[in-house]
Amino acid sequence: MKRASFFFFFKLSAYWFAINFLWGAMLAIVIPSQVQFIVGNNAKSAVLGSVIAVGALVAMISQPVFGALSDRSTLSFGRRRPMMVLGALLTTIPLYIMGTTSNIIVYSGGFLLLQLFVNISTAGYQGLIPDTVTPAERGIAASFLGIMTFLGTISAVVLSGSLADQHRYGLINVLIGVVILATMAVTAFGIKEKPHFNQEKFNLTTFLKTFYVSPKKHPDFIWLLVASFFIMIGFYTLFNFQQYYLEDIMGSTHPAQDTTLVSAVVLVGATLISVVAGVLSDKIGRKKVASFSALFMATMAFALLFRPSFQVILVMGVIFGLGYGGFTSVHWALVTDCLPDAEGSAKDLGLWTVSATLPQVLGPKIGGYLLAVYHETNLAYGYSLLYVLVIAYLVIGSLLVFKIKGSR
Predict the structure, then answer these.
(1) pTM of the model
(2) Residue 316's domain spans which residues?
(3) How many domains, the chain?
(4) Do 240 and 27 contact (CB within 8 A), yes or no?
């Protein structure tokens, strides 16, 4: 069988750049900055946790549902690309709402819609990858996706940091919208897929039963979901409160810009490791790379317990990036090794996405609660508890990876 070209993988992974550009800007820079701008310093942590949690809850439900609908689609344009195009176009609506409002209720509603529409698009997109990539080339596809993850995120934090400090949220959202529409066009019209012919009549009971994955029949997929949950809740807990830590504990006068710098060095480390992660995983196995990567991420949380200088934080950011990059580079290949149903790949990938979006619900809520409780008495102690939790999450996740037996 003829191997796919470089341009095929570039076109296939282009939209992943946009997804990471959006969330890299929103979660690390824009939402923390804009929430504080709207509600003030005292309420920022609790409100941030609530805003992100509500949106992530919508994502957790919508991704598997729209993934399953995509699996059943018989449109001539394909079963994946129509979802991509529709979701990307709709995404521009909440971006406009969030960029122009100064009301936290309206802002939260906009973020809810953003999660819904982005996940309609992502549900179709994630199914496109296993549909068009052979098992022998999954490692190559995972490497391209890893690179697009880092490039999208680092571009977002660099572009949005100074603009967020100037409260130019509308301009940031315009940039995000342009990137989403442009890369969606590259992937949706650059990758061809065959129409899917499903002869079964729709039955709601049968449809709902497809969301159940038997732990006995597919234990690897279940262990993957659990391990991913713990690793990602550690990541998001650290990631979402990074900007507030720099302001509250480090005394930063430009927290969004300093967060941009920390995020940039994290992504430098991630980009460096992504070059060799695929080769390394072939030698020692994907599970070992994923496990060691989680422990690398935990070292930054450990360092933050001791309130290091900003220079030390930057050094630890590189180490954290090595862990983040290593995990991201092998994660997709690990997932595709464990998928229960080739025909229902978008639904199963939607279920896997729950292991990433549920941490976005719980991580900010738990973290926001801790910081709110200790805000008036001992905020530094609240951050210490937060980072102890992060370490625990990541260590547990690193151990659970080895419960997956069907992948190296």
Answers:
(1) 0.71
(2) 6-192+214-403
(3) 1
(4) yes
